[in-house]
Design brief:
This protein is mostly helical and 93 residues long. Helix content is 51%, strand content 0%.
């Protein structure tokens, strides 16, 4: 589905039990990366969607896979599309 970047911004800032700055809590301010999670800003919507779907399916691996799987398994297809559109709208580093 086509993504709505404005809705994606709302989801990124207040996702379920994670609330507040849900994505920024790990991925840093402006989603530009941190010591614990990589930068997302500037990534393509296709890349973000692929990764979120892999986490949701349980096929993604890596040091933060379990944490991301816990989040992604609560997402619907439209949530992933909207978050992906939002991330792609952010300027990269």
């Amino acid at each position: 589905p086509a993504g709505d970047a404005a809705r994606g911004a709302q989801l990124a800032q207040n996702w379920g039990e994670y609330g507040g700055y849900a994505c920024a809590g790990c991925h840093g301010e402006g989603l530009r990366g941190s010591d614990v999670a990589p930068a997302l800003a500037g990534r393509t919507a296709a890349y973000v969607s692929e990764r979120l779907n892999a986490y949701r399916a349980g096929t993604a691996t890596g040091p933060n896979a379990a944490q991301m799987q816990a989040v992604a398994t609560t997402m619907q297809d439209q949530d992933i599309a909207d978050l992906s559109a939002y991330v792609a709208s952010l300027p990269g580093k």
